[in-house]
């Protein structure tokens, strides 16, 4: 399990009912939800929570560095609580399932000097695409 709630508490983040619900929705492994998905799940637990509150809360978690924004396709940004362990993503092209993965070797180091064009490179994002076992079996 990711320990998002615990991390937020340790940061001294004031835990209101709304914030707690958003954090609970995002807690776990391989969680990559769009803001609308977070809102839909939050409403199931706390019917009065507004879309604006969910968006603001997600923005605050990102600012704190406890949630990262992930774009694995041209669709909406996704929110990922796995913020402290660098990872890449494996995406099913059919159903959109997303797994956190850790390739062997450092993708940053694998770019040849000749293709760095003098850049000092600070970050790399790799998305592996394919078909998940569920979709392959269907
Ligand atoms: Zn799939
Ligand atoms: Zn992830």
Automatic annotation (TrEMBL):
Query: What PANTHER family does the database record attribute to this sequence?
Result: HYDROGEN PEROXIDE SENSITIVE REPRESSOR (PTHR33202:SF22), ZINC UPTAKE REGULATION PROTEIN (PTHR33202)
Which cofactors are reported in the record for this sequence?
Zn(2+)
User: One of this protein's Pfam families, by short name?
Assistant: FUR
Residues where Zn(2+) binds: 92, 95, 132, 135
Which InterPro entries does this chain map to?
FUR, Fur_C, WH-like_DNA-bd_sf, WH_DNA-bd_sf
Keywords noted in UniProt: DNA-binding, Metal-binding, Repressor, Transcription, Transcription regulation, Zinc
> What is the designated name of this protein?
Transcriptional repressor
Family of this protein: Belongs to the Fur family.
- Native organism is Streptomyces liangshanensis
Example GO biological process: negative regulation of DNA-templated transcription
Q: Which GO terms describe its molecular function?
A: DNA-binding transcription factor activity; transcription cis-regulatory region binding; zinc ion binding
